[in-house]
Amino acid sequence: MTKKLLLIDGNSLAFRAFYAMYNQLDRMISHKGLHTNALVAFNNFLDQIVDPMQPDLAVVAWDAASGKETFRGELFPEYKDGRSKAPSEFKEQFPYLREMVALHGLRNYEQPGLEADDIIGTYSRLGEQAGYTVIIVTGDQDLTQLATDKITVNVTKKGVTEIERYTPDYIMEKFNLTPLQIIEKKALTGDTSDNYPGITKVGEKTALKLLAEYHDIDNLYAHVDDMKQSKLKDNLINDRQLAFCARKLATILTDATLALPLEEIEYRGIDYDNLVTFYENLDFKKQLAKIKALQKSGQISGSQTTVEKSINVIKLQDDNLQAVAMLGTKIAFHIEMVGQNYHIDDMVGFVIGSPATGYYGSRDVTLLQRPELKSVIENAGIIKNVFNIKAQLILLKRLGIKLKGTKFDFLLASYLLDTTDNDNELATLAQRFDLYMTSDEDIYGKGAKFAIPEDDARVLAHLANKADILMQVEQSAFDALQEHEQTHLYTEIELPLAQVLADMEYQGIKIDQKRLRDIGSDLEGRIHAIEDAIYIEAGEKFNINSPKQLGVLLFEKMGLPVVKRTKTGYSTAVDVLEKLAAQAPIVDHILQYRQLAKLKSTYVEGLLTVVHDQDSKIHTRFLQTLTQTGRLSSVDPNLQNIPMRTEEGRQIRTAFVPSEPNWQIVGADYSQIELRVLAHMTGDKNMQRAFLNGEDIHAETARAVFGLKDDAPVDALMRRTAKAVNFGIVYGISDFGLANNLGISRAEAKNFIDTYFKEFPQIHAWMAKIKEIAHEQGFVETIAKRRRYLPEISSKNFNLRSFAERTAMNSPIQGSAADIIKIAMIKVADALRNHHMQARMLLQVHDELIFEAPMDEIQELTELVTNVMDSAVVLDVPMRVESHYGNTWYDAK
Question: Are the CB atoms for 451 and 310 separated by under 8 Å?
């Protein structure tokens, strides 16, 4: 087998790594205060590109100093002048980058008088002569000049983990150049990044034409006198010295004298022992997990960490199904599926068992329907540990099985313990408890490379490892919940809510597809009419959906004032067009066109594509572990986002209908729940009095901020302004934000806010206190002890810190409102069951619950739901629930 030599351009890749995750700079900080964004990205490069390669020889070349201290600096003193200094956040990571390289088994090498390119160039030629296949990895296309049949230059793009392979054939195909002509091109164009010029006014296009005809600058200058008289000819003659100087500067040395012989850059392999310590110091949890998973699977040995035993799984078949009945009274159960949508995605297999009795599994999920297994799953006396109980409930419902006896859902517990981590993979979450296993990506691949292994034993072993984690982690997770005072939140709210949500999702909501298509046809007709009006006003046809064409029309041809620019031209965003609407009728028509086109594509066509053929229903998924506030989120599709602002949008709701004849849709929603929670949590007597007296809180606020008498009338504009102030305060709005929302001056906005806090002084005091608490403990809590962690609360970045402070003020309010609606859902579901009603809960839209019920239950249902929701949680102010019903969702509002 041909031996491999790996040469890595350390400086270029380190800079690329830093900027690949630059947007994470203030979030990627170790517990010691070290920025780690470049380290994380560079480590990803080593993991994904280098480690799998297993070269025989390997070196990471670094610049010993600036290029000015090399022969290039002597040749051209301005070489690399003007380069900005490296950011301090990058410099502090640099020593750790070199340590990381060494721990991955690679030699670091630099040599005074040489740039990293020259080290790579020389090693590449030595390696080629010694019979090695040479692989260069760089972020700099200059090194493509080194490509030969034995030397491949891999240039990273989109960060540091995606590469483009440059061979002589590929360079010819892409540039119509040989590798050595890369140097000649630089001779003609110069290099602005290295600050040396080429021929005046010769760019890449001209350079490629010249090289296609003359091959190199020697031949070009041999024939320059034969060229027709032109400005190009004059520039070539005048800049002859610059061209030959540029060629020397661009040429990478391949014959430098290196102090470190080729045979001494042997690849040593990864030093797992010390790499674990390195990762621990940098808080690299995912990287630690990967090492420990490899140890657990026996692929590597030796470590300073505890390695767990490999888990065996017994394949279930007809002759051993009865063994499941002997597993005991506490087991783990897990069904694996392809993808995220448990309503429709295929199931990969399942596993069931415990460490004491062993694990059993199969790729054939229909075995679960057999009496020997079904009886165990449906036995509430056998306690099951699961991961993502809602998914497990619905997957089993698809098989006609009811999951009972579940007390521990690792996903729900993990979510409550840390809402900032949206990685919902079991292997990742287990790392918090120092438990490690192979990730799903390592087993199945990712994206286009996703595939279920043909080896059933490998899949089942992976599932058994998951089940074993579920058994091991339970006590630690419950201990952590108890320490956080979140046991009640878990056992009395989140766990029972999962069952309620599973029932709602599985039930689904009926769609009148004909009605939806009729709405689409009506929208299409209106869109065409507006389209024609736009063309008439424009005086020409153009692509209305093209921001570029629209920008040219509005700002160049029609001469409208430019409000904002983007990197690619004029901004035609909604906020820009709204500012211009009064100046030209065409702008208002464009806004109408966009609004109707979005309704048609997103809500008509989009909803029709997700209606299930079997029951003509939509089965959304409510994400219970996504938001940091505890609010539910709806996906596939998002039914919490059906438009309400316009009549055209509201018409979409007329297609949501009862699933049974002579039934109706019922809606029940909390009125001003967040303001009521605010009054309760802050203890503000003035706001509490308004709610206790049943007064209009927005009208009362209007009287306060506008300085009106207690009994003075409040007009609609005043009330709207007061409403914006009320809800703005809840979200920690600034005078700038309020001014922008209301279209008033900052001075007026500040006066509104100051007056508001005079009227409701305890709200102001509470907000100051909650910010103080957030800074002290790094999190805030809801009434149910749900935590919102605020990692940016101590950030040196003012904007991030300010956002965290606003979040600290809002999260207890919004999160407590989420707690209340969840508690109400559980109690409503219990009440429907206890009253033996046919009515079904279908949707939750933040503060609103949607039901369907037979006509003869409507009165009882509205009274029951109103009473239960009103009393779900006792606050210092009364809750208020409004309910409506009708033939469609539209009518139930």
Answer: no
